[in-house]
């Protein structure tokens, strides 16, 4: 089946536009090096590496995996799997959401987020322009330092992925790099 995306909500003037209603999501706890953590499984590590490769490509520092962000993401992923719908949590963290199937949901989600790069042309975030690239820009946002991700499976076996980011990105009037 095709992955399901949640569309990005409208950003507010002083609040981060951190939720997206039709896009993937991913976040996880931090490591000291920013390059990985010994407690991550292979797919989680690949998801972190994909984030950091994309960030390096635009000159931004690597993210660290954060267990606290991942824990909160797990609670929300469990909720979404029961709900059967991609809805943002409206919390203070940056957040990307994804639903799909397959054996590597973490990396599949990040690949989907990063696939929006082709839609981003370097412009500042406005209240209406980031709907097609907001997942990508959250992944590479310059002031974001931590990610935590979680997956929950629903009764049909679909994976619901939540990625949480600190500090949140997609700030109105700013650029990711």
From TrEMBL:
For bias type Basic and acidic residues, the affected ranges are 43-58
- Pinpoint the SCP domain residues: 42-173
Extract the Gene3D superfamilies matched here. Answer: CAP
State where composition is biased (Low complexity).
Answer: 17-38
InterPro entries in the record = CAP_dom, CAP_sf, CRISP-related, SCP_GAPR1-like
Pfam families, per the entry: CAP
Residues annotated as region Disordered? 1-70, 81-100
What SUPFAM superfamilies is this protein classified in?
A: PR-1-like
Q: What is the top-level taxon of the source organism?
A: Eukaryota
- Name-wise, this protein is SCP domain-containing protein
**Originating species:** Fusarium oxysporum (Fusarium vascular wilt)
